[in-house]
Amino acid sequence: MLQTQPLSFRLLAPEDYPSGAGAAPLVLDSPHSGTTYPPDFASAIDLAALRTAEDTWVDDLWGGAPELGVPLIAATFPRSYIDANRAADEIDPLLLDGQWPDPLVPSSKVRLGKGLIWRMLDDGTPLYDRKLSVDEVRHRIEACWKPYHRRLAQLLDAAHSRFGAVWHINCHSMPSVAAAYATDKPGLVHPDFVLGDLDGKTAAPAFRQFVAAWLRGRGYDVAENDPYKGVELVRAFGRPEQGRHSLQIEVNRKLYMDEVSLRPGPGYVKLQTDLRELTAALTDWMRAQLA
């Protein structure tokens, strides 16, 4: 069952669980797969360049989850417009034409030009030839960021209430090689997968370890908490001491698409099948944890 919030998200909920609670204590979210570019974006660069910021196809790669009773929420807005995987106070003051009324956090992502509102693409290309008004940024937060976070929180709360625990996968993709302004490690050749739980702060280690072992068993190269440990969404929702476990999963784009054309590659179907089978294996593992 598809549920939508204008400008913000679409929820693929299991048919038998339209509220989104699901048949298992697992929730997936894809915050960077949005492809609807609002007319008020008014970026200085063309759409082809903007699209390089997307986690293209990630929501579809994990799209078998609802058939297994697992809800999947995906952003419809692009991350270059506003990034759902940032805190609401990670605003880059260099983008603003006035003073933000509340305190701001000068995080590492803001310093890279990748705060709540991106200042540049991964290659350093500026997104704007203008400053943004405080009202523009507020609109993006209210129309996109808040509804996405609120609905994801509701899904996680529903699963936790029903099962007594919840596991959350924050779904992402990464380029085969880190770009100049993408991370603190430009030029790094990425493995097939990177799993991040902020070094064990957002999930019990067994969650990450199960996923890592399963993927390695399928022949994938897997890194854990390096170079990506997880960012805002796992930080905001991961509370392992309360039975709330959040894990970020980054998948290498070379496995499934042409990184220039953004078209699916020959490995697409295999990866999609593997992620569906991983989801099924996880639901069985989670039920065993609750037994």
TrEMBL record:
| A Pfam family the protein falls into | FGase
SUPFAM superfamilies on file? Zn-dependent exopeptidases
Q: Which Gene3D superfamilies match?
A: Zn-dependent exopeptidases (3.40.630.40)
Name a GO molecular-function annotation.
Answer: hydrolase activity
Alphabetized InterPro entries for the sequence: N-FG_amidohydro (IPR007709)
Which keywords does this chain's UniProt record carry? Answer: Hydrolase
Q: Which protein is depicted?
A: N-formylglutamate amidohydrolase
Tell me the organism: Bordetella flabilis
